């Protein structure tokens, strides 16, 4: 195998969830090691506990330096961050200890990405409540990674097999959305999307911009935000050489992606974009945080405490994340 394979740091996520199980399942697929060297950040006992329910028993190879990782099938190169206290957690029940452990794994992996020792980072499924209890007091993935990477100007992009999506606004009340979809915010998001997709290998990303109002405002009859804010932002972006297209009506813009006319959709608010992409691609979606000097991804599902420890968890989402983190498209 070539040493030119990218090194991808993968954290186990919350040990009480399905993270360890899906990690073992994903790395059991021999094609993964053909195109990347996965470096796991976690704990040997946590992985060993997941082996019986998955029916897998890879060789756990503790390493101190990520350069020692070999990326061989049927083995797991592990940066062991120490054991969790006896009795500090059980499957399906997170705790402050598991939250702290989750945060330390992510922080260590991001530090190595910043120093250039790994090429990408994938965060396994985490529990926000546990991480906050464990001292990592952030609202979610984006806020945690921003803090650890020392960057604030980022945008979360959801990558799928066919559909890619970003949002101008995310977790805000719907009544606040129109005032936040102003010229400055829309332009800022378009710029971040352009650079983020260039970092993913798109030479000239085609950004499809959604309208805010029905029919993209119907030339002002159904709302003025498109005329006053969104279109001026797009015109400024185009003047900078960015391929921003639209604004398209929110109920038909996804056809533009389906038909290959755009590379990513910029939705104005959370539930508009998410409802569409989750309906057609749930299970294969990956979150990518653009705007960072490093490449950081995460699976788009939670810890699934209700099935943790049963072996039922599907690893497809993590497999797809490994492809994306290595600069490949999932077959």
Detailed description of the structure:
The model has no long low-confidence stretch (mean pLDDT 94). Helix 1 (19-27) crosses helix 3 and helix 8 crosses helix 9 (225-239). With 331 residues, the protein is an alpha/beta fold. The protein folds into two domains: 7-154 and 284-325, Isopropylmalate Dehydrogenase (3-Layer(aba) Sandwich), CATH 3.40.718; 162-279, Isopropylmalate Dehydrogenase, CATH 3.40.718.10. The protein has a twelve-stranded mixed sheet with strand order 3-4-2-1-5-12-11-6-7-10-8-9, with helices on both faces. It is 37% helix and 18% strand. It has helices at residues 19-27, 32-35, 44-54, 96-114, 128-133, 141-149, 177-180, 183-199, 225-239, 253-258, 270-281, 316-325, and strands at 7-11, 37-42, 59-62, 75-80, 120-123, 155-159, 164-167, 206-210, 243-248, 264-267, 286-290, 296-299. It is built from twelve helices and twelve strands.
